[in-house]
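Appendix B: complex inputs.
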Amino acid sequence: MISEYSFEHSVTTKQIFDALKAHVMRSRTAITTVFLGLYGGSDTASAEMPDVGEITAFLTNQTRKSDFVFKISNDPIWFMVLAQSGEREAAAFLRRLFRMVRTEGIPALNNQKLLFSASVAEIGNDEGTFEELIAVGALALKKSLSKGPEQIEYIASFKKRPSEKVRVSILEENAIYRDVLHRTLDNLDLGHFELEIKEFQDGYEFLESKWYLSSHTHLILMNDILPRQSGLDVLHEIRRLPNNKRIIVFMMTKRSSEEDMIYAYESGVDSYFIKPFNLRLLEIEVKRTFERLYTC
Amino acid sequence: MNAVVDVLMKFFGGFIIFYMSVVTVAYTCMLIFAFIEIRKQYKLDKSALDEDYIDALYYYKPLSIIIPAYNEEVGIVDSIQSVMSLKYPQMELIVVNDGSEDQTQQIVIEQFRMKKISKAVKQQVESKPIIQIYQSEIHHNLYLIEKENGGKADALNAGINFAKYPYFCSIDGDSIMDEKSLLRVMKPIILSNEEVIAAGGNVRIANGLDIQWGSVYQKRLPNRPLVLMQIIEYTRAFMMGRISLAKFNLILIISGAFSVFAKKWVIEVGGYSVNTIGEDMELVVKLHRFLRENKIKKRIEFVPDPVCWTEAPESLRVLRRQRRRWHQGLIESLVKHIKMTFNPRYGKVGMISFPYFWLVECFGPIIELGGYVYVIVAFFMGKIYFEFAVLLSLLFILYGSVLSAFSFLLEVWSVNLYAGTKNFFRLLLVSFTETFWYRPLTLIWRCEGFIQVFLRRKSWGNMKRVGLSKNSRNKRSKRSK
Amino acid sequence: MLKIPIEILIIGICAISLVIVILSMYLVLKGTRDHIVSRKKKKYIQNKQDTWYRYFNDDIPLPSELIPNNNSEIKAVEEIFLAYVENISSPIIKKKIREFSNQYLRRYYLNLLLHRRWSLRMNALYRIVSFEIDSLVDECKKYAKRAKLSSEERFQLLIIQSMFDEDSFINEFGDLLLMLSEYEYKKLLVSFSVEILEKLTLQIDEFPEEYQYYFIDVLGIKRNFSFLTFLENNLSHDDTEIRIRSLKAINEMGMITDLDRYKVFLDSPVWEERLMLAKLLGAFPLEQVYPYLEELLQDENWWVRSQSARTIGNSKDGKSRLEMFIATAQDQYAIEMAQEVLVRGY
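Resulting structure:
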């Protein structure tokens, strides 16, 4: 049955690229586009040109299933979109590819040996359009081809990560310490993350505020024991939310019992601090956590 | 005929005046003693100690809290919530549903996401069979035991059987704990090398407080004079009875609303007695008795500051029932262990506590009530007994109002729970009125209890609960919609 | 006849009423004063906590505005310091608090220390420990020589001695411990370093029995492997209690290597030792120790049965072993226990 369906529109390169670009924002995972050009390709007469179809097939074979390879019409140039890869991953991939085609050649073309150069653009935000990318990418490729074989030009203009608002809630009973925590997090430089910090005296005030219900990434720094509703109540309430992965919970405690600690982790705590602890430790932990939010 | 009446009037008059004078002097001494004790701790920063204890799992004793619940649907969530907010290194909470007929069980299961678990329970003291055990998904140390109805004592025994820690604390299902109360009530036990095997805490009245999710938010005074009077009464009992008695290991009553026991010794004496009304007093007496009979050097303490808030009756009808029951329980225990009275084998408890409880607590109300009747009769009989009547009235004022006022002042000086000048004068004023209405009322009720002992009636003493927390009240109404 | 007592009573009641009125006035005044103090305190905290934060976290000299001018402000500083000390562990902040206290709070605490009210002296002793006010240590030494000391004072002074004068403290430790309750003794020991505890293991035989027990408990709390040999040597001790506590302490460490040393407890007449063995066997692969656990599962003691069932249930493949056991065993008690662990899942 299904085979009888035929789609009215086949998807264009631009559409695929736009879809992947939109995903960048949602998943905080960069994609990287590559323009790959055959070195000396434009000088050789078309009769001597190797079979570009075979090269496209070879390249598709070399990339991951989640990546795309498109041949640019008329020119021996390929446009690749590497999903879930940053500049560094792309560069590593290209160098491997360069070495392979130089030493072993392409099997389908009787191991014919080839030389390539490339331009690489990491896409970290959804601001740039497909057309801009093509223009800038083509220019950069020209530059790298002019430098020689196996050259890589990097394009930085699409790389910038968008600044992202992150909510932070501090649930602590002692007003002075609450203030200290607030200031410490406020002074933290987290790159493109902007913290919006609120203080709460106890679990009830926090849960009533409904502040955690937005779709923002949310860091909760809380005591295990709080008046009215305790930290564990809050934790349980939060972990029942549908998209609770965006909420990061750091729990602070005065109790050093291992049993409590194990239970806290089991209930969904991301990090556990036994008081008294050093504020530097908290800072590092927060930094590392936010760095990890961008997988590459 | 007249001569006989005259002799009788003079005899009773003299007797009552004598009794009242002795009791007044005794209470004054206790009050002075309490003042000296409190003065020692005056301005001591207890939070320094609390901080010290909280991370000290190694030397702190883990503890099981047992809440027996029979038809407590209104207050139970707040009670549990307040226990879960306690500052204490290691503890578990066991809620025992003693076959409630209301929604107690469903509410707890729903609110704390209780899941059925299976666990073999070793029967160390006798109790009715357990139907099902639940454990909370939110708090791993919160359990609910569903069992057949067997009364409060039976429910507590089931809790003791289930408890895994060496100490347990019993709390009423309608009480709210102060966050530091456990730390402080356990302090004498730990510091005494476990020579203290039971400790009672100071219980206060929760009516009128702003309680949210088991935490006291604002300490406001309730409006009803009846409740205000009970606030004074609790203060008085605490200042004049508990502190001094505990100091000399003479205490026979630690409040059932909040007390800690060493499980080992409670099991040793067979747990709570199921067939008594005042199971808390009965247990303490049994412990005293066991210790003396086996010549074990252990003590029972009363800790002045741990605070547990409990709901006081707001209507005369409920208060009357409560007081009758208290008196019945008291007499029952005294009668059951009558052989301890004036028995040197039981040391100070036998020689001082028991006679004191017999005379002042058990028969005292009858004598005092007799005094009130005497005053009225004497006024009607004219000049001859006028002086008796005046003297007795003055003694009543001294004993009732003045001592209450002093207890209250002492309380304000040391703790000052209800801050503010207005509250202060309101309570002071109320304390002065004690002799004129509250005292006679409670005396009548206690005498009723005395009479009822002979009629022997038992029940859980259902108190009509209005609930302490605004939340719980709202929650309830939402649920019923 | 009754005239005189009535008059006396009336006069008495009047006098008492007067006293009550005076006391009431005093209490109302006191209430107002306390209120003012707490308001000033709050104000100081509100205005200065930012500056304090910067002083503690940045490398700047002490801003002079932080120096408290009166008692309310000292109380505010005290509250700020306590919030830091209790929640934050940082050598730098600790040092700053120590230096500040030594310089600006010394007088205040010295006055408290010499106060005739016990509770105020206690407060001072607590703060000396919290803020490490070493300039008052000599004063504390004098204090410790006083004839009448409450047990609370004595203990707090011992803590001060152990903090600031370790050598003399260790030398006197044997004599000192007799005055301590279990709680106090353990609290002191826990604060000691491993080196000091190791020194003390050499003199443990001189301690009274109970203190030997507590000492072993503390070694368990410390979870340090350097004590393992000492604890294992205790396993052949004549005193049952020492053996049980050593087993407990070893269990706390969660690792044992030499199984043969522990096998002897399988036939121990003391059930607590069998219980501890059932717990300890959890540290080994189940295949290696299953026969022993199966034996303990059929023990006459409830607690031993319960523990062995739990140990088996917690191990890898433990569940299937329990199922097998239920299918083949005879002992009804043991079967019930195994079933319970299976149903409960731990």
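Chain C touches chain A through 15 residues (CB under 8 Å).
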